[in-house]
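It would be a great kindness if you could assist me with a short task in structural biology. The full record is reproduced below for your convenience:
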Amino acid sequence: MTQSTPTTPAPSAASSAAKSGGFFKNLLGRFAGAVADRGGPKVTTEVMKDGRSNRYLDPSVLARFGLTPMVAKLVVEGFISGLHRSPFHGFSVEFADHREYVPGDDLKYLDWMLYARTDHYYIKRYEEETNVRCHILLDRSASMAFGTEGLTKWDYSCFLTTCLAHLMIKQQDAVGLAMIGDGPGVMAPARSRQSHLRQLMAIMMQNPPEGGTDLATSLQAIARNLKRRSLVVIVSDLIDDPDETLKSIRMLSAQKHDVVVFHVSDPSELEFNFEGSTLFIDIETGEELEVDPEAVRETYRERMEDLTDNFRKRLTEVGIDYHPIDTRQPYDHALWAYLQMRARVNK
């Protein structure tokens, strides 16, 4: 984290922090950091800094935020049962191991000899080619380093990215990771090895959020590097020029990629639940604006809803999956959305 919490201004004003750039430019969505002393949400701009390579899968860390690594397993099993079909197909002749039978599995892969010994149904699994090639595009612009109640959008997104990558690898999909923000960033190629997950977590830890935002340029650069049709997962707060951002996301779809967008927001960005005179500070430009939240809250919320509706309409009309989520939501919604898209890709 390269940005520090802004200094509290005049005693008469609480200091939260948002990126304004003109009061309603980006609908005050560009929150950055705060030192609130007159009520409202408790704000943080401090992203996680411990150096453990497994921190985004550490049960003790997940428990702090009410999360559990078991959610991926439960969601996958529930999703597969609901579809009545197996995501594992394209078997080769080399045996690998067994897994429990799930309704919808092809019965020709049942191990009847093992059933005779155990009285339980198991499916033979074989070494197989990668089913789907996935690329996760993670926003590391400075606006991601904002959160309330101790969890920034960045850390939430890193947990989500790790869970998605873990799930993809478990399903023998190849997953890559690219940083987006003010331009093209670090890009890890898609791999399906379990050890690859550590490399992806290391990239996230070594590249905390900083700098400005130019999502359009970032996405265009990524698109030029994706030579094969892929499943592209975008994890971002989408705080930039909406029209240019939409054009770039839609361009990925026009190039025949299957695209899923997770629009990550902090609850305070949606509800604007600050109290008292508040000084908003743009962490990228230093621009300041003092406002009375009560006087603008209703208009702000209406415009945020309009923004979300615009993203949903413009993306879904070209077949892109759009999912607005906030950092209070458990990850099962996002994992389920990914699995639904993956099932459609495999049809």
Summary: Residues 91-128 form one domain. The first strand starts at residue 14 and ends at 15.
